[in-house]
Amino acid sequence: MNKKAILEVCAFHIDSCIIAEQEGAYRVELCDNPIEGGTTPGYGTIRRVREKISIKLYPILRPRSGNYFYSDEEFEILKYDIKMCRELGCDGISVGIQTVNSTIDKERFKRVVEWAGPMGVTCNRVFDCAPDPFIALEDIIECGCERVLTSGQKSAAPDAGELLSKLVKQAGDRISIMPGAGVKSSNLAKLREECGATEYHSSARVMAPNPVTFINKEVSDYGNVYIADAAEVRAMIKILKG
User: Fold this and answer.
1) Does the predicted model carry a pTM greater than 0.90?
2) Is the pLDDT of residue 3 over 80?
3) Taking the C-alpha atoms of 157, 200, 49 and 34 in order, what is their torsion angle to the nearest 10 degrees?
4) How far apart are CA 32 and CA 137, in angstroms?
5) Does 37 or 145 have the greater pLDDT score?
6) Contact, 233 vs 40, CB < 8 A?
7) Which pLDDT score, from 0 to 100, does residue 235 have?
């Protein structure tokens, strides 16, 4: 396979964004809350990242964890967050909206794409919640998205090579299929061979050491900080360059 492919780094920290650019990633999906699958990052984070990197920046817009079936109030929050991203100079957004039966909410998604213009729109892993991936793909194309981030409806994309290959063929030149979740340098070449996608998504994350000199072990809500492993990003870029 000679055609070059690109890597999007899912970043939960500004340092990950900087590493992504330094190591040759094409795009960053900026998120908060890695344990909850990613939620909307704050204004200050988006602004500072935009100031620090020149590669494409797509914040995830997800007002909470859980499902993608949003109330009217949550949908209004999305509208304001889209406006924020456009004003801060983001290149696009990553977002997903579903109906109560988990199909793609085409009516609302079309409005999101309209609000986002001229930014691009990635359909995030709401796709993996849909009961029929082939119908969902056509719905997302109809909504005007430019790519679908998907694990192939498995926990990890490398376990879904067969379905991802079918989706790539169905998509053709109409939309990009971007496998993500569990993608690492150790499985990327095999996944690429199986599915033939030209975009891949990985956090390449490792737990950052805690630099503070005293930790109260009776407190359980410290959490952890995750940053991208530069060597892992570099290894994946090398694979994708063929």
Assistant:
1) yes
2) no
3) 10
4) 26
5) 145
6) no
7) 98
Residue type present at position 7: L
Provide the residue type at 166 as one letter.
Answer: K
Helices and strands (H and E) in the chain: how many: 8, 10
- CB-based contact 110:80 (threshold 8 Å): no
| C-alpha span between 174 and 214 (Å, rounded) | 54
Least confident of 37-51, 117-131, 203-217: 203-217
Q: Residue 104 has which token pair? A: 């793609």
Tell me which of 39-53, 175-189, 208-222, 224-238 is least confident: 208-222
Q: Alpha helix locations (H) across the chain?
A: 14-23, 43-52, 72-87, 106-116, 133-143, 161-171, 185-195, 230-240
**Residue of 25, 22, 38, 26 whose CA lies nearest to 13:** 38
Q: 74-95: b or e for each residue (b if 16 or more CB lie within 10 Å)? A: eeebbeebbebbbebebbbbbb
**Full set of structural domains in the chain with CATH:** 6-210+219-240 (3.20.20.380)
Q: Please name the amino acid found at residue 99.
A: T
- Output Rg (C-alpha) for the chain, integer angstroms: 17
> What distances in angstroms separate CA 192 from CA 25, 38, 165, 218, 240, one per listed residue?
17, 25, 9, 45, 8
3-state SS, residue 150:
strand
Hey, how many other C-beta atoms are within 10 angstroms of the C-beta on 191? Answer: 25
Locate 159 and state its tokens.
């376990």
How far is residue 219's CA from residue 43's CA, in Å, rounded to a whole number?
28
Distance CA 144, CA 126 (A): 15
